[in-house]
Specification:
With about 450 residues, the chain is an alpha+beta fold. Helix content is about 60%, strand content about 10%.
Length: about 450
Amino acid sequence: MRTRISYAADRLRNSYWFVPGLMLLGSAVLAWVLTRVDDASDPQDLPWAGELIFSGGATSAHEVLGTISSSMITVAGVVFSITIVTLQLASSQFGPRMLANFMRDRANQMTLGTFVSTFLYSLLVLRKIRDEDPASVPHLSVTVALLLAVASLAVLIFFIHHVSTTIQAPNLVAAIAGELRRTTDHLFPDVREAEHARPAPAHADLPADFEEHGRRVDARTTGYVQVLDVERLVAVAREHDLVIRLDTRPGRFLVDSTPFATVYPGDRVADEVATAVAASVVTGARRTAQQDVEFPLRQMVEIGVRALSPGINDPFTASTCVDQIGAGLCTLAGRELPSPYLVDDDDFLRVVHGDPVTWERLVAAGYDQLRQCADSHTPVYLHILDALTRIARCVRDASRLEPLVREARLVVEAAERNVEAEADQEVVERRYDALLAAVEGFRAGSSPR
């Protein structure tokens, strides 16, 4: 249940309409409250009000609110147009998968919400004014409308600055790197900070006849796995005394009516149990970072690969992606990846991840495609080797060094094939030697830092 609630909350936070919708509701409540205050008393009678409160008549108030409402809806249309142009530029330069980052940008959502909320507030206050009744002028409400109009101008200036900043490649890559850090902290919390965390088993054996007597469960939807409700799976497995092996993970693509899990023993798996297992998987049209730590890595890789294409030929952006990927992997290097074996409260094995996230897979996801597309760009090879060296100095487990060395060897081999200048090849070799020195220092027991 908590997983489902978290998924729904994440969908709402990342939608483009939710924050503006809340702000619209807030503006309606504010208009209702302030007009009631105006009906109950006249703020102009307060000794401290002075020139702070709007003092015009019904005609002036009508013109002020009409001007504010008409201008706000016009500016809201301009903001929407700027957003669409920004999305088009981002899609063509960085790839269509970057659009979601702009859509869930909180500043963009709040900017649109500010203008439409000011528009709605002005309309709701405007309906209270009657030209034939001078006493119907809600002085305090009109004053707040003027303040909201001034605030909207400030938000417009901020929005123009924000859009021109976020569309720059280094800032976009940094924003994705920040999402990677947040996903890492959520999925792989630092065990040093989780003092009372219950350790999961590092290894567990499935029953010997698991394949023979297990029942395969088919997916009921088609799409990318966005969320796996493992708590629900453990509860179902415990209730019926089952062991479930998942052959998929967040980020994988599922096809309807194809098997994605095996449940043992199969003779205890009724149709309602299979339905409950299938319902634990939430799919969608695209990958998300809620449970998929590879997704932010893939986003940065996509930007880097596009930058290395002959049509763009921008190794500087690719190098920025390499550095930020290295920073994310440095954080992951010091975290314990979750055990693929999940037990219930009585320490009975209930769920096994047959396709778990591994350190080797994360390193490959970060650098394989960039290395393959680097071609003759020597700076990209050098940045990859430097990043791998920094990662080697962040690891706590010596077993995580070998994937880094393997990736570095592949980088050197690619440079030997693609880089013609011997001097450049020698520089690549020296960076590779620096990585090996850091690795040997760690294995010798000295601090790699």
